[in-house]
Amino acid sequence: MSAAIVLGSNADALVAAHLLARAGRRVTLVHPRAFSDRPASWVSPRLRRALALEAAPAGADATWASALLPAGGTLELAQDIGRSVEAIRRLSPRDAERWPQFCERMAALARLLETLYAEPPPAPLDLRLALRVRRLGRRGMSDLLRVLPMSAAELLDDWFECDALKGALAASAIAHLQQGPRSAGTAFRLLHHHVGCAPGVFRPARIDLVAALRERPGVALRAQGIERILIKGGRVTGVALAGGEELAAALVLSAEDARRTLLELADPGWLDPELARAVGHVRRRGVAARLRGRARHRPATAVLAPSLDYLERAYDAAKYGRMAEEPALEARYDGDRVEIDLQFAPYRLADGPWDGAARARLAAFAASRLPELADAPLSVEAPPDLEEIEGWPEGQPFHAELALDQSLWARPLPALARYRTPIEGLWLCGPGMHPGIPGAAGEHCVQALERARA
Amino acid sequence: MTGLAASLKTTPLHERTAALCASHAWRRWAGYAVASSYELSHEREYHAIRVAAALFDVSPLYKYAIRGPDAARLLDRVVTRDVSRAQIGQVLYTPWCDARGKVLDDGTVARLEETTFRMTAAEPNLRWLEANALGLRVTIEDVSAALAALSLQGPQSLAVLRALGDVPPLKYFRLARTRLADLPVDVSRTGYTGDLGFELWVEARHALALWDALMAAGAPHGLQAAGLLALDVARVEAGLMLIDVDYVPARKALIEAQTSSPFELDLAWAVNLGKEQFVGRSALAAEKARGPQWQFVGVEVGWEGLERLYSQAGLATRVPQTVWRTSTPIYSGNEQVGYATSGGWSPLLKKYIALAHLRQPWANPGTQLDMEITVEHRRRRAAVRVVKKPFFDPERKRA
Amino acid sequence: MSASYDALIIGGGHNGLVCAAYLARAGRRVLVLERRERVGGAAMSEEVFPGFRFSVFSYVVSLLRPEIIRELELPRHGLHILPLESTLTPLPNGDYLAQWNDHDQNRRELARHSLRDAEAYDDFGLVLHQMARAIKPILAMAPPDPGSLDPRELMDMLRLARYFRGLGDKNLQALWKLLTMSAAEYLDEWFETEALKATKSASGIIGTLLGPRSPGTAYVLLHHYMGELDGVFRAWGFAKGGNGAVSAAIAAAAQAAGAEIRTQAPVERVLIQGGRATGVVLEGGEELRAGVVVSGADPRRTFLGLVGEQHLPGEFAESIRRFKFRGASAKVNLALDALPDFTCMPGRGPHLRGAISVSPSVAYLERAYDEAKYGEISRRPYMDIVIPSMLDPSMAPAGKHVMSIFVQYAPYHLNGGWTDARREALGDTVVETLAEYAPNLKSAILHRQVLSPADIERIVGLSEGNIFQGELSLQQMFFLRPAPAWSRYRTPIEGLWQCGSGTHPGGGVMGASGRNAAFALLRQRR
Question: Most buried in the list A68, A367, B202, C462, measured by CB within 10 Å?
Fold first, then answer.
């Protein structure tokens, strides 16, 4: 039974570790931090079967987003298309008419993306990919070619007139991305978040892979810092832990981000300097702060993104290294606890450090928009804090920004997209790898590795 | 307004070289104007290299100061030779490669102190060095402009130096830090002529004083300021390759076929595969195992054949007086088996010689081939023979 | 009236003229119908002020396809392109960044700002050269329709896929980056000098309502390297006599081949009978008939204006309605009593023979864009300036000069709309901005002409004043230009073709659309 080491404290690390263990390897999972991750959005049926995971709780009548309207009240977007139509009709009868057709056309594209996400990334000129694209039919194909490169704003402006509806959709298209709704390629992100959802749902149900796998037997867990990855003659030989202990293994999977793995944990001298340079160029800027506290429960995720321009202006600030005066807000409720993302809040502030005043501004903003917040103070985690707590590089939960140029066969960059590194025995399986959905990269990495060894 | 009008950079020695440059013939070298020849013909300058002493301004070389605890490690990552084992005062000639094992540049690495090195290069390499320095404790400084370089070459060169100060006995490819004419100078026993010779590294502000002292001290020894045309003849005789002429650096190659590995450039001796880690190592190991496709060799044009071609045209035999740099096909029968990249008349050897890239098995010494030459507007083929490099290799070079 | 022509060409812009010339050379009877009193469209020279001639709209010759110059023998018809020698970027701190054609001079100047950038410049140039080489054949290609089941289109699609595969992984990956990244982020990977990144990224935003940080703008960086491939050293230049001379040469070539040109002949609509285009009706009622009608007008004017939605399939009409124009550029033409005296580089020098780019930093350009995207004129705009009289003295009276200033951003959809006052305010902004770098400018101005996107639309008929007949963004390129399934110069109306910049490859005074359209048409009818 050969030994393998998995590095990381996220869902991908857990998935990879358990799949390797299931394949008969002796697996040690070294996690430098407490496990935590963004809850998974979609788990492929195959992974679900492989790890015997329970299906996501279905809730046909659930509301997936409750968009806060500037004049008070909410726009409730529901799993059920009919209910959304009714809600939208109160704001725009024209948009209500169009909603079902929009949902149908987007769902067709998301289904294609889903097949691409269910396996390692396709080659750009893969014939199977071409055939799949053609299977969309003429209209689906023109939709795809048009939608992929376009901006969320253009796509939504094509379809709708209601600012609140467009804002709520665009907010998910730019979540955790250093781009605004007018940036080309953000329409693709809307589809990304649509993968695995029912038609009409653009914010996936939450499946907590970490919770499901953390306690599972079969994998040895070591809660310890990682000093470096040991390499001899271009081959991995193990991992040195903080404190000096060395674990030997010929196979190491890292769910840490590519830059940390290859340029900090491994000796970069093993890489082609051109590749090292490209790794250093992977963009991974965190753009959102996370606030946590207590609040009266709301049944649905609240979204504050009243218009495309609202989001665009929030992004404008981030371009120059400033916190948005009026950030986009997403609040998720769990019992009396609430977790709020505020975007844009850049990792590096141009005009000073992330100090108490900067954090207080974010807390004050959230309090001013969410009356249900309790009086108890909110904890504010700026991107540098998230880097510390969650291990998200620069506070970026996707490890590599999920922009079009860092997606699919180019995620996080073309030479590494197949999970394999130039260092024999060292593989990448973190959220920075294709497809950028928690757990999926862990699965694909193990699949690619087993295939390479077969 | 400087830098505005189209103008080339001038070296720290320009004030002197310009005054001497009776030919008004200048050549570009790394963005600098450097004399092609000082006199109307480069002939005397060439002969000075072989019988007396010649002084060249080689300041346009790129020079990098590399310092820090990991300086040797950085250089070992970059170049193909073993830098860590070099002694203080040792100079290594070495190529360096990209990850595909293709030569990016060639130059020297001098170990000045335990953790201080100076690298010379034909091309800018700051970015490349920095890209290789990830995670290392090392500083890289471009000292190209701060440091002037003079090359003193020829059998009398040592005598000229000794007239100016205390020069410790220096073996071939060794360096000493000393004072000449009371100026701090690093003297290395290196050069690009294949003769006894030295290169002098001096702060730019002292460059003119050093030049003046050398010219004065050298006069009794027949010292002659010499330009690039003379140098070109000497380096071909010495079998030394020139970047952009004899090989295309991998960074500038538009297609794979334009690149060369060190093995293909006759630099196998400079590739140390015993080092665990350096850029291009695995590609070079693989190439060594399968044997290189190309060899870089010398060829001599057979005089009788050449004479016959000219005489058929009713002409006396002509040979190129300066080194040509046009890629020239070489044939075995009707098959092109390679190409020559520089060649010309060796005034010393009285031979028409050239440096050539040949495919195996045509690269073995003694192989008879044909090289294309143009006689009176017509393409002809002259018989050439593959010979061992260098064409000229005097004892005094290493003694 | 009988069909006395094989082809009627709507619009005497450069693409219409190129198309006419190729059709006429193939023996077709061709008539070009131009609304204005002269041909050229936006490639037009005019003596705007007595003694001062301007390339009123487009002002440099960048990508005019060399095969067009050769095949139509344009130099014989008067075309002479003078090379642009440099680009000067004056900086607010009194320094400058210059880019020169001479490699050594350029490296020396870049090294003054950053040794790394001087070094990276060559590597960057090599990568872009390789990419340009990869892309070039695509410019001359009629894009296949990926959705078609027609065996011929399928074969073309396969050939295209094979071509791309032949480029190799490294090139494909580099191409993907160029297509999807923003110019600024792409350049961030190469360079550290702000002015260099800004000036280079500016080429990615020209003619588009996008900023240097907008994804999709990196691709246009390639255009600068495209010209070199044709062996045309220094491909960017001025036409002697201004850009009108380009149109005049093409028109002369077309006429020499037998094409007829009628000016002051505005087309009111395309005649459609039984779903087929049979001719056109001119304003005033005259009907002209021909075997085919080729429109050089942009897609919106052609289909929603001259054809009418009622004749179009619903989905096609929807695509055309969605086709983005969003003109963002304006033009200011100055007649000068004296040359501008730049603080950073005083006096008359070679820098005045090249382009002058007001693009000190990426943030400067991005701010200019931020204002425009919410419907305002940039308070400090990006400007690309040339002084044609420095190269061609016939453009201005002796000792005097003409200055052409391309300005961005001046959005077509201006809050409150374009008025005379707003136009002049734009002119003031431009002069103020430039005077910060060349203080003598204000006193040297003899005359000033300001052209807003609304003016460009009104005068030359480009919808929303978009200089490319529609944004060159990824979703409006190649087989999506101007609409999916209709990128091969044909239209859903039998007998109606398109040849303007609104078709592949579009953009600039390139002429490729006109030539490709002519070839597609000739192949079809053989």
Answer: C462
Q: Contacts of residue B9 in chain C, CB cutoff 8 Å?
A: 104, 108
Residue owning tokens 């054809």:
C307
- C-beta neighbour count of C333 within 10 angstroms: 24
| Beta strand extents in A234-311 (DSSP E only) | 235-241, 246-248, 251-254, 288-294, 302-304
pLDDT at A273: 96
Q: Name residues 97-126 of chain B within 8 A of A (Cβ).
A: 98-99
Q: Is B283 on the interface with A (CB under 8 A)?
A: no
Q: How far is A185 from chain C (nearest CA, A)?
A: 7
Question: Chains meeting B at 3+ CB pairs closer than 8 A?
Answer: A, C
- Which residues of C sit within 8 Å Cβ distance of B? 98, 100, 102, 104-105, 107-109, 112, 115-116, 118-120, 122-123, 126, 129-130, 345-347, 349-351
Question: Are B339 and B361 contacting, i.e. CB atoms less than 8 angstroms apart?
Answer: no
CB pair distance less than 8 Å for A316 and C370: yes
Higher pLDDT, C147 or B36: B36
Looking only at the bridges linking them, the beta strands covering B351-359 and C260-262 are unpaired
Task: With a cut of 50, list the residues of chain B below it in pLDDT.
Answer: 1-4
What is the predicted pLDDT for the residue at A37? 66
Q: Which residues contact C453 (CB under 8 A, 6 or more apart)?
A: C327, C328, C329, C330, C410, C411, C412, C418, C464, C465, C466
Q: Find the helix or strand (DSSP H, E) in which A312 lies.
A: helix A308-319
Condensed to tens digits (0 to 9), the pLDDT of residues C479-523 reads 889 998 888 999 999 999 999 999 998 877 889 999 999 999 999
The contacts of residue C393 (CB under 8 Å, 6+ apart) are none
Radius of gyration of the CA atoms of chain B, in A: 21
Cα C459 to chain centroid, rounded: 17
> Do residue B276 and residue A233 have CB atoms under 8 angstroms apart?
yes
Q: Count of A–C CB contacts within 8 Å? A: 93
Q: Between A185, A281, A283, which is nearest C180 by CB?
A: A185
* pLDDT value of residue A39: 67
**Residue C61, pLDDT above cutoff 90:** no
User: CA-nearest residue of chain C to B142?
Assistant: C115
Q: What is the mean pLDDT of residues A211-228?
A: 94
Q: Is the pLDDT of residue C234 over 60?
A: no
What would the pLDDT profile of B169-227 be if each residue is shown by its tens digit?
A: 999 999 999 999 999 999 999 999 999 999 999 999 999 999 999 999 999 999 999 99
Residue entry with tokens 């769910």? A255
Residues B322, B342 contacting (CB under 8 angstroms): no
Q: Which residues of A touch C176 (CB under 8 A)?
A: 124, 405, 409-410, 414
Q: Give the pLDDT of residue C227.
A: 65
DSSP state of A441: H
For residue A243, the number of C-alpha atoms closer than 13 Å in the C-beta half-sphere is 8
Give the C-alpha separation, B191 to B170, whole Å.
Answer: 13
Q: Give me the pLDDT at residue C66, please.
A: 87
Give the pLDDT confidence score for residue C2 in this predicted structure: 46
Nearest C-alpha neighbor of A393 from the set A275, A274, A261: A261
C-alpha span between C24 and C8 (Å, rounded): 11
State the average pLDDT over residues C108-121.
Answer: 96
Q: Report how far apart, in Å, the C-alpha atoms of C350 and of each of A390, B128, C353 are.
A: 56, 34, 5
pLDDT at C408: 96
CB within 8 Å of C275: residues ≥ 6 apart: C311, C493, C494
DSSP state of C57: S
Q: A410 to chain B, minimum CA–CA distance in Å?
A: 21
Mean pLDDT of C310-322: 93
